[in-house]
Specification:
A hairpin with a 2-residue loop joins strand 1 and strand 2. This protein has a two-stranded antiparallel sheet. With 91 residues, the chain is of the alpha+beta class. The relative contact order is 0.14.
């Protein structure tokens, strides 16, 4: 799947959403999804979407390999981000 780095029109966004959704076998849009940050105190949900934002949901599902149901995934920061330094070659 070729992914364009940005979509500038409503039509491009809708087409990108369709491509991502169509590429996931058996995909059904989630009623809700969230992104949380694990802290010493627990989980801080920094983004919660309820019946909205279907394109980010499909992109996250693609990245995580999610196919349906309720699940949690650990997402590690990109190399170099945790230390505050850019990855080699990107400085």
């Amino acid at each position: 799947m070729i992914v364009k780095s940005s979509w500038t029109t409503v039509e491009e966004i809708a087409e990108a959403r369709r491509r991502f959704e169509d590429a996931i076998p058996g995909w059904r849009r989630p009623v809700a999804f969230a992104i949380g940050l694990v802290t010493d105190q627990g989980v801080d949900f920094v983004r919660v979407n309820i019946e909205e934002a279907p394109l980010p949901a499909a992109i996250l599902a693609t990245v995580c390999g999610h196919r349906g149901g309720s699940a949690s995934y650990r997402l590690d920061p990109p190399v170099g981000q945790a230390s505050g330094r850019a990855p080699a070659g990107q400085q």
